[in-house]
Amino acid sequence: MENASKALIMAGSVLIGLMILGALILTFSNLNAYQETNVRNERSAQVVEFNNQYETYNRTDVRGSDLYSLLNRATDYNERKSVVGTEGKEIAYEPITIVMDFAGKLSDIAPPEGENRLITKNQYIISGTTNEFEDSISSEIDSLESEYGTSSLTNLTSALTKIFIDTNDQAEQMLAVERFNSASKKKKVSAWREIAPGSQIRQDVYKYYEYVQFKRAYFDCTSIERQGESGVTYNTKTGRIVKMEFKYNGKMQ
Question: How far is residue 57's CA from residue 4's CA, in Å, rounded to a whole number?
Fold first, then answer.
């Protein structure tokens, strides 16, 4: 009888031990599941937060000035947080690519004489840490604004057709010189030859005119190759935006 009692006590102890072990295993399993859920939710939130920065440009009325900011944002992101950047290798996100296409209509932003001097390519691609659009015009624009002054360049581009004329009439030439000096607060000229066709000043203002025209142009976020389809490409595994394409739609404001 005593042995039977001891056996029951031992059996009960084992059962209780198994129940405790099972409870611990269940708790640990639930904790892991909870942590995994939190990790997934956090990653999903990060994807949404990242995509939202770019989804705002997923429309059909993106101005060139806004697109210019997007190009710089993408380049900065690629440098700081993607696998191709010197700062972002440890974070190791996939870089984002931006394609900007003028749809064969560069003449829309060209100056009155018709030759593009600043923006000369039909398509610019921002890939990795290389922003070929920024690299090709930024230093040029900075230099022009430093030499002439931003407000003066704005005035000169607004009065472009009245100042940068092609004439042999001396009275018209002198009037053009007066108009230039009235519009330009920082740089003055004393003779027609300084603003005549082919002059450096005329070339400089024409370049800035292209920059202004670009900022006024509207682009659609649409596939360059498949017109009408979305211009946004997502990574199929992470859900993050990895490419955006923009095409000039022929509108200016």
Answer: 80
Task: Kindly tell me if the per-residue pLDDT of 32 is higher than 90.
Answer: no
> Cβ(132)–Cβ(124) under 8 Å?
yes
Q: List beta partners, residue 93.
A: 82
Q: Distance between CA atoms of 215 and 150, rounded to whole angstroms? A: 15
Buried residues in 23-48 as b, exposed as e (16+ CB within 10 A): eeeeeeeeeeeeeeeeeeeeeeeebe
Residue with tokens 């198994």: 18
What pTM does this model have?
0.80
82-127 confidence digits (pLDDT tens) = 776 554 445 567 889 999 999 999 999 999 988 999 999 999 998 8
CA atoms of 240 and 93, how far apart (whole Å): 9
97-101 and 241-252 strand pairing: parallel
CA–CA gap between residue 27 and residue 67 (Å, rounded): 51
What whole-number distance in Å separates Cα of residue 205 and Cα of residue 155?
10
The stretches of the chain forming alpha helices (DSSP H) are 2-55, 64-81, 132-148, 150-158, 160-163, 170-183, 200-216
| CA-to-CA separations, 4 to 39, 140, 158, 222, in angstroms, rounded | 52, 98, 107, 82
Which of 39-53, 156-170, 186-200, 232-246 has the least mean pLDDT?
39-53
Q: Where are the domains of the chain?
A: 1-55, 59-252
Nearest residue to 175 via CA among 189, 157, 185: 189
Instruction: Give dist(CA 99, CA 62) in Å, integer.
Output: 13
Nearest to 240 by CA among 81, 70, 39, 48: 48
pLDDT at 227: 80
